[in-house]
Write a structure and sequence with these properties.
The protein is 30% helix and 24% strand. The protein contains 8 helices and 14 strands. Helix 1 links the parallel strand 1 and strand 2. Helix 3 crosses helix 5, helix 3 packs across helix 6 and helix 3 crosses helix 8. The chain binds NADP nicotinamide-adenine-dinucleotide phosphate (NAP).
Length: 338
Protein backbone atom coordinates (compact mmCIF):
# COMPACT_ATOMS: atom_id res chain seq x y z
CA UNK A 1 0.00 0.00 0.00
CA UNK A 2 1.34 3.42 -0.96
CA UNK A 3 1.32 6.72 0.90
CA UNK A 4 -0.76 9.84 0.50
CA UNK A 5 1.73 12.64 -0.12
CA UNK A 6 1.16 16.38 -0.34
CA UNK A 7 3.60 18.99 -1.72
CA UNK A 8 3.21 22.55 -0.42
CA UNK A 9 4.86 25.15 -2.67
CA UNK A 10 4.35 22.84 -5.65
CA UNK A 11 4.53 25.68 -8.18
CA UNK A 12 7.91 26.91 -6.88
CA UNK A 13 11.48 26.06 -7.85
CA UNK A 14 11.83 23.52 -5.01
CA UNK A 15 8.27 22.15 -5.21
CA UNK A 16 8.55 21.37 -8.93
CA UNK A 17 11.86 19.62 -8.31
CA UNK A 18 10.25 17.60 -5.51
CA UNK A 19 7.53 16.41 -7.92
CA UNK A 20 10.19 15.44 -10.48
CA UNK A 21 12.26 13.63 -7.84
CA UNK A 22 9.29 11.70 -6.42
CA UNK A 23 8.39 10.50 -9.92
CA UNK A 24 11.99 9.68 -10.93
CA UNK A 25 12.63 7.65 -7.80
CA UNK A 26 9.21 5.95 -7.96
CA UNK A 27 8.37 7.00 -4.42
CA UNK A 28 5.64 4.64 -3.11
CA UNK A 29 2.78 7.16 -3.30
CA UNK A 30 -0.82 6.19 -4.06
CA UNK A 31 -1.89 9.78 -4.17
CA UNK A 32 0.07 13.02 -4.71
CA UNK A 33 -1.53 16.39 -3.98
CA UNK A 34 -0.07 19.71 -5.21
CA UNK A 35 -0.61 22.75 -2.95
CA UNK A 36 0.35 26.41 -3.35
CA UNK A 37 -1.15 29.83 -2.70
CA UNK A 38 -4.71 30.78 -3.51
CA UNK A 39 -3.31 32.54 -6.62
CA UNK A 40 -2.31 29.21 -8.16
CA UNK A 41 -5.40 27.21 -7.27
CA UNK A 42 -6.59 25.40 -10.39
CA UNK A 43 -3.36 25.67 -12.41
CA UNK A 44 -1.63 22.44 -13.45
CA UNK A 45 1.85 21.22 -12.53
CA UNK A 46 3.50 18.21 -14.14
CA UNK A 47 4.16 15.06 -12.21
CA UNK A 48 6.38 12.57 -14.01
CA UNK A 49 6.22 12.04 -17.76
CA UNK A 50 2.47 11.81 -18.15
CA UNK A 51 0.61 13.24 -15.16
CA UNK A 52 -0.66 16.73 -14.46
CA UNK A 53 -1.87 17.71 -11.00
CA UNK A 54 -4.36 20.50 -10.33
CA UNK A 55 -2.99 22.80 -7.66
CA UNK A 56 -5.11 23.30 -4.54
CA UNK A 57 -5.05 26.14 -2.03
CA UNK A 58 -2.75 25.22 0.89
CA UNK A 59 -4.51 27.50 3.37
CA UNK A 60 -7.81 25.62 3.13
CA UNK A 61 -6.54 22.10 2.41
CA UNK A 62 -7.70 19.43 4.87
CA UNK A 63 -4.65 17.29 5.82
CA UNK A 64 -6.71 14.50 7.38
CA UNK A 65 -5.53 11.26 5.76
CA UNK A 66 -2.27 12.78 4.43
CA UNK A 67 0.74 10.67 5.46
CA UNK A 68 3.59 12.97 4.42
CA UNK A 69 3.75 16.67 3.61
CA UNK A 70 6.84 17.93 1.75
CA UNK A 71 6.67 21.64 2.46
CA UNK A 72 8.38 24.59 0.74
CA UNK A 73 5.99 27.55 0.63
CA UNK A 74 8.42 29.92 2.41
CA UNK A 75 9.24 30.24 6.11
CA UNK A 76 6.29 32.43 7.15
CA UNK A 77 3.71 30.20 5.50
CA UNK A 78 5.35 27.01 6.82
CA UNK A 79 5.36 28.44 10.34
CA UNK A 80 1.57 28.33 10.20
CA UNK A 81 0.78 25.48 7.85
CA UNK A 82 3.33 22.80 8.83
CA UNK A 83 2.10 22.53 12.45
CA UNK A 84 -1.48 22.48 11.16
CA UNK A 85 -0.62 19.53 8.90
CA UNK A 86 1.35 17.83 11.70
CA UNK A 87 -1.60 18.19 14.05
CA UNK A 88 -3.85 16.53 11.49
CA UNK A 89 -1.49 13.52 11.47
CA UNK A 90 0.81 14.20 8.52
CA UNK A 91 4.57 13.90 9.02
CA UNK A 92 6.03 17.11 7.64
CA UNK A 93 9.40 17.38 5.91
CA UNK A 94 9.92 21.11 5.90
CA UNK A 95 12.34 22.82 3.49
CA UNK A 96 12.12 26.30 4.94
CA UNK A 97 14.35 27.84 7.58
CA UNK A 98 11.54 28.10 10.14
CA UNK A 99 11.91 24.86 12.15
CA UNK A 100 15.58 24.01 11.57
CA UNK A 101 16.93 25.14 14.92
CA UNK A 102 13.94 23.98 16.99
CA UNK A 103 15.44 21.46 19.45
CA UNK A 104 12.35 19.27 19.02
CA UNK A 105 12.76 19.10 15.24
CA UNK A 106 15.43 16.85 13.70
CA UNK A 107 17.61 18.49 11.02
CA UNK A 108 18.68 15.74 8.67
CA UNK A 109 20.98 14.89 5.80
CA UNK A 110 20.28 11.17 5.32
CA UNK A 111 23.90 10.25 4.51
CA UNK A 112 25.14 12.15 7.58
CA UNK A 113 22.69 11.78 10.51
CA UNK A 114 19.84 9.45 9.45
CA UNK A 115 19.42 8.27 13.06
CA UNK A 116 18.09 11.74 13.99
CA UNK A 117 14.94 11.05 11.92
CA UNK A 118 13.66 9.04 14.92
CA UNK A 119 13.05 12.38 16.70
CA UNK A 120 10.25 13.26 14.27
CA UNK A 121 7.72 11.94 16.81
CA UNK A 122 8.23 14.98 19.05
CA UNK A 123 6.50 17.43 16.69
CA UNK A 124 5.74 15.33 13.59
CA UNK A 125 8.14 17.65 11.74
CA UNK A 126 11.59 17.01 10.22
CA UNK A 127 13.57 19.95 8.83
CA UNK A 128 15.60 19.91 5.64
CA UNK A 129 18.80 21.94 6.09
CA UNK A 130 19.82 24.99 4.08
CA UNK A 131 21.14 24.14 0.60
CA UNK A 132 24.64 25.48 1.31
CA UNK A 133 24.82 23.50 4.55
CA UNK A 134 23.73 20.20 3.00
CA UNK A 135 26.51 19.98 0.42
CA UNK A 136 29.13 21.17 2.91
CA UNK A 137 28.28 18.76 5.75
CA UNK A 138 28.13 15.84 3.34
CA UNK A 139 31.70 16.56 2.24
CA UNK A 140 32.86 17.27 5.80
CA UNK A 141 31.41 14.13 7.38
CA UNK A 142 34.02 11.55 6.27
CA UNK A 143 36.82 14.07 6.84
CA UNK A 144 35.59 14.70 10.39
CA UNK A 145 35.54 10.95 11.07
CA UNK A 146 39.08 10.70 9.70
CA UNK A 147 40.86 13.54 11.49
CA UNK A 148 38.37 15.56 13.61
CA UNK A 149 37.54 18.98 12.27
CA UNK A 150 38.36 22.01 14.44
CA UNK A 151 37.51 24.91 12.17
CA UNK A 152 36.01 25.51 8.73
CA UNK A 153 36.33 28.67 6.64
CA UNK A 154 33.97 28.65 3.68
CA UNK A 155 33.13 31.07 0.87
CA UNK A 156 30.05 30.21 -1.17
CA UNK A 157 29.22 30.99 -4.78
CA UNK A 158 25.43 30.54 -4.73
CA UNK A 159 23.18 30.38 -7.76
CA UNK A 160 20.08 32.53 -8.08
CA UNK A 161 17.69 29.55 -7.99
CA UNK A 162 18.46 29.44 -4.26
CA UNK A 163 16.22 32.53 -4.12
CA UNK A 164 13.32 30.83 -5.97
CA UNK A 165 11.67 31.18 -9.35
CA UNK A 166 11.37 35.01 -9.25
CA UNK A 167 15.10 35.34 -8.55
CA UNK A 168 15.82 33.24 -11.64
CA UNK A 169 13.59 35.52 -13.69
CA UNK A 170 15.44 38.57 -12.31
CA UNK A 171 18.81 37.26 -13.52
CA UNK A 172 17.33 36.36 -16.91
CA UNK A 173 15.60 39.73 -17.39
CA UNK A 174 18.56 41.80 -16.18
CA UNK A 175 20.96 39.94 -18.45
CA UNK A 176 18.72 40.48 -21.47
CA UNK A 177 18.07 44.10 -20.43
CA UNK A 178 21.76 44.95 -20.19
CA UNK A 179 22.27 43.79 -23.80
CA UNK A 180 19.56 46.16 -25.02
CA UNK A 181 20.71 49.05 -22.81
CA UNK A 182 17.79 49.03 -20.39
CA UNK A 183 18.44 50.48 -16.91
CA UNK A 184 19.05 47.85 -14.21
CA UNK A 185 16.37 47.78 -11.50
CA UNK A 186 17.16 45.30 -8.72
CA UNK A 187 13.99 43.89 -7.15
CA UNK A 188 14.65 40.73 -5.13
CA UNK A 189 18.40 41.17 -5.12
CA UNK A 190 19.95 44.09 -3.31
CA UNK A 191 22.18 45.02 -6.26
CA UNK A 192 22.57 44.19 -9.94
CA UNK A 193 23.03 40.40 -10.21
CA UNK A 194 23.67 40.08 -13.95
CA UNK A 195 27.44 40.28 -14.65
CA UNK A 196 28.06 40.87 -10.94
CA UNK A 197 28.51 39.07 -7.59
CA UNK A 198 26.74 40.11 -4.37
CA UNK A 199 28.26 39.41 -0.92
CA UNK A 200 24.86 39.26 0.73
CA UNK A 201 22.51 36.28 0.87
CA UNK A 202 19.53 36.89 3.18
CA UNK A 203 19.32 39.70 5.75
CA UNK A 204 22.08 41.18 7.90
CA UNK A 205 22.39 40.18 11.55
CA UNK A 206 23.63 42.30 14.44
CA UNK A 207 27.18 40.90 14.37
CA UNK A 208 27.67 41.87 10.71
CA UNK A 209 27.15 38.39 9.30
CA UNK A 210 24.16 37.55 7.13
CA UNK A 211 21.45 35.10 8.06
CA UNK A 212 22.62 32.66 5.38
CA UNK A 213 26.11 32.68 6.96
CA UNK A 214 24.61 32.13 10.41
CA UNK A 215 22.58 29.20 9.07
CA UNK A 216 25.76 27.48 7.83
CA UNK A 217 27.36 27.93 11.28
CA UNK A 218 24.51 26.68 13.46
CA UNK A 219 23.17 24.00 11.14
CA UNK A 220 26.62 22.40 10.76
CA UNK A 221 26.86 22.20 14.55
CA UNK A 222 23.39 20.67 14.88
CA UNK A 223 23.92 18.08 12.13
CA UNK A 224 27.58 17.15 12.47
CA UNK A 225 29.19 18.26 15.74
CA UNK A 226 28.62 21.26 18.06
CA UNK A 227 32.40 21.55 18.51
CA UNK A 228 33.05 22.51 14.88
CA UNK A 229 33.72 26.22 14.35
CA UNK A 230 32.52 27.66 11.05
CA UNK A 231 33.28 31.02 9.48
CA UNK A 232 31.21 31.60 6.33
CA UNK A 233 30.98 34.27 3.65
CA UNK A 234 27.97 33.72 1.40
CA UNK A 235 27.96 35.25 -2.06
CA UNK A 236 25.30 35.25 -4.78
CA UNK A 237 26.65 34.78 -8.30
CA UNK A 238 24.96 35.05 -11.73
CA UNK A 239 24.52 31.30 -12.20
CA UNK A 240 21.04 29.79 -12.57
CA UNK A 241 21.50 26.42 -10.86
CA UNK A 242 24.28 24.93 -8.71
CA UNK A 243 26.05 26.22 -5.61
CA UNK A 244 29.85 26.10 -5.33
CA UNK A 245 31.89 26.37 -2.12
CA UNK A 246 35.58 26.97 -1.50
CA UNK A 247 36.14 25.23 1.83
CA UNK A 248 39.24 25.38 4.03
CA UNK A 249 39.37 22.96 6.96
CA UNK A 250 41.65 22.74 9.99
CA UNK A 251 41.84 19.35 11.73
CA UNK A 252 42.90 18.15 15.18
CA UNK A 253 44.90 15.30 13.68
CA UNK A 254 47.20 15.02 10.67
CA UNK A 255 45.52 14.28 7.35
CA UNK A 256 47.02 13.74 3.94
CA UNK A 257 45.50 14.34 0.54
CA UNK A 258 45.42 10.67 -0.46
CA UNK A 259 43.55 9.66 2.70
CA UNK A 260 41.11 12.55 2.29
CA UNK A 261 40.44 11.58 -1.31
CA UNK A 262 39.93 7.95 -0.31
CA UNK A 263 37.36 8.63 2.44
CA UNK A 264 35.51 11.10 0.23
CA UNK A 265 35.38 8.51 -2.58
CA UNK A 266 33.82 6.02 -0.16
CA UNK A 267 31.18 8.46 1.11
CA UNK A 268 27.70 7.77 -0.31
CA UNK A 269 26.32 10.83 -2.11
CA UNK A 270 29.78 12.19 -2.99
CA UNK A 271 31.65 11.98 -6.29
CA UNK A 272 35.31 12.96 -6.30
CA UNK A 273 36.40 14.52 -9.60
CA UNK A 274 39.89 15.79 -8.93
CA UNK A 275 42.49 15.81 -11.69
CA UNK A 276 45.18 18.45 -11.68
CA UNK A 277 44.72 19.35 -15.32
CA UNK A 278 42.54 21.79 -17.23
CA UNK A 279 38.90 20.73 -16.77
CA UNK A 280 39.83 18.29 -13.98
CA UNK A 281 37.16 19.67 -11.61
CA UNK A 282 33.37 20.20 -11.57
CA UNK A 283 31.57 23.52 -12.02
CA UNK A 284 27.91 24.44 -11.30
CA UNK A 285 26.97 24.22 -14.98
CA UNK A 286 27.95 20.54 -14.97
CA UNK A 287 26.22 19.58 -11.72
CA UNK A 288 22.78 20.99 -12.61
CA UNK A 289 20.30 18.11 -12.76
CA UNK A 290 22.67 15.73 -10.97
CA UNK A 291 22.10 14.10 -7.58
CA UNK A 292 25.62 13.99 -6.21
CA UNK A 293 27.79 16.47 -4.35
CA UNK A 294 31.02 16.82 -6.34
CA UNK A 295 34.36 17.39 -4.63
CA UNK A 296 37.35 18.72 -6.56
CA UNK A 297 40.61 20.61 -5.95
CA UNK A 298 41.52 18.60 -2.81
CA UNK A 299 44.86 19.89 -1.57
CA UNK A 300 46.80 20.35 1.64
CA UNK A 301 46.95 23.83 3.11
CA UNK A 302 50.52 24.25 4.36
CA UNK A 303 49.74 27.55 6.15
CA UNK A 304 48.16 25.75 9.15
CA UNK A 305 49.14 22.62 11.07
CA UNK A 306 46.59 20.14 9.69
CA UNK A 307 44.88 21.96 6.85
CA UNK A 308 43.00 20.94 3.73
CA UNK A 309 41.24 22.95 1.01
CA UNK A 310 38.53 21.70 -1.30
CA UNK A 311 35.98 22.81 -3.89
CA UNK A 312 32.46 21.45 -3.44
CA UNK A 313 29.66 21.79 -6.00
CA UNK A 314 26.06 20.56 -6.05
CA UNK A 315 22.65 21.24 -7.59
CA UNK A 316 20.97 23.33 -4.88
CA UNK A 317 17.47 22.41 -6.04
CA UNK A 318 18.21 18.67 -5.95
CA UNK A 319 20.59 17.59 -3.15
CA UNK A 320 20.26 21.08 -1.65
CA UNK A 321 16.48 20.77 -1.38
CA UNK A 322 14.20 18.31 -3.21
CA UNK A 323 16.37 15.19 -3.28
CA UNK A 324 17.40 15.54 0.36
CA UNK A 325 13.74 15.92 1.37
CA UNK A 326 12.65 12.90 -0.68
CA UNK A 327 15.54 10.83 0.74
CA UNK A 328 14.29 11.72 4.24
CA UNK A 329 10.79 10.59 3.19
CA UNK A 330 12.25 7.34 1.82
CA UNK A 331 14.09 6.58 5.07
CA UNK A 332 11.00 7.49 7.06
CA UNK A 333 8.80 5.11 5.09
CA UNK A 334 11.31 2.25 4.98
CA UNK A 335 12.56 2.44 8.59
CA UNK A 336 9.73 3.97 10.61
CA UNK A 337 6.33 3.76 8.92
CA UNK A 338 6.05 0.20 7.68
N1 LIG B 1 15.64 27.30 -3.89
C1 LIG B 1 16.45 26.58 -3.12
O1 LIG B 1 17.56 26.18 -3.53
C2 LIG B 1 16.03 26.23 -1.74
C3 LIG B 1 16.78 25.30 -1.06
C4 LIG B 1 16.41 24.93 0.22
C5 LIG B 1 15.29 25.51 0.79
N2 LIG B 1 14.57 26.44 0.11
C6 LIG B 1 13.41 27.02 0.77
O2 LIG B 1 12.21 26.52 0.19
C7 LIG B 1 11.21 27.53 0.19
C8 LIG B 1 10.68 27.73 -1.22
O3 LIG B 1 11.74 28.06 -2.07
P1 LIG B 1 11.56 28.12 -3.64
O4 LIG B 1 12.92 28.34 -4.14
O5 LIG B 1 10.77 26.99 -4.19
O6 LIG B 1 10.69 29.48 -3.81
P2 LIG B 1 9.74 29.92 -5.01
O7 LIG B 1 10.23 29.40 -6.30
O8 LIG B 1 9.57 31.38 -4.85
O9 LIG B 1 8.34 29.19 -4.70
C9 LIG B 1 7.56 29.53 -3.59
C10 LIG B 1 6.40 28.55 -3.47
O10 LIG B 1 5.67 28.87 -2.28
C11 LIG B 1 4.31 29.11 -2.64
N3 LIG B 1 3.72 30.13 -1.77
C12 LIG B 1 4.10 31.42 -1.62
N4 LIG B 1 3.26 32.06 -0.77
C13 LIG B 1 2.33 31.13 -0.39
C14 LIG B 1 1.19 31.18 0.46
N5 LIG B 1 0.83 32.30 1.10
N6 LIG B 1 0.47 30.05 0.62
C15 LIG B 1 0.80 28.91 -0.03
N7 LIG B 1 1.88 28.80 -0.85
C16 LIG B 1 2.63 29.91 -1.03
C17 LIG B 1 4.35 29.58 -4.05
O11 LIG B 1 3.08 29.41 -4.64
P3 LIG B 1 2.50 30.44 -5.75
O12 LIG B 1 3.15 30.04 -7.04
O13 LIG B 1 1.05 30.17 -5.69
O14 LIG B 1 2.88 31.82 -5.30
C18 LIG B 1 5.42 28.65 -4.64
O15 LIG B 1 4.84 27.40 -4.89
C19 LIG B 1 11.85 28.76 0.81
O16 LIG B 1 11.52 28.80 2.18
C20 LIG B 1 13.32 28.52 0.62
O17 LIG B 1 14.10 29.16 1.61
C21 LIG B 1 14.91 26.80 -1.13
Amino acid sequence: MGYRVAIAGATGAVGREILTTLAERAFPADDVVALASERSAGVSVSFGEDDDLKVQDLSTFDFKGTDILLSSPGAKVSAEQSPRAAKAGAIVIDNTSHFRMDPDVPLVVPEVNPEDIAGYTRRNIIANPNCSTIQMVLALKPLHELARIKRVVVATYQSVSGGGKDAMDELFNQTRGIYVNEPVRPELFTKQIAFNVIPQVDAFMEDGSTKEEWKMVVETKKILDPAILVSATCVRVPVFIGHAEAINVEFENPIDEAEAREVLRNQPGISVVDHRVDEGYVTPAECAGEDHVYVSRIRCDPTVENGLSLWVVSDNLRKGAALNAVQIAETLTSDYLN
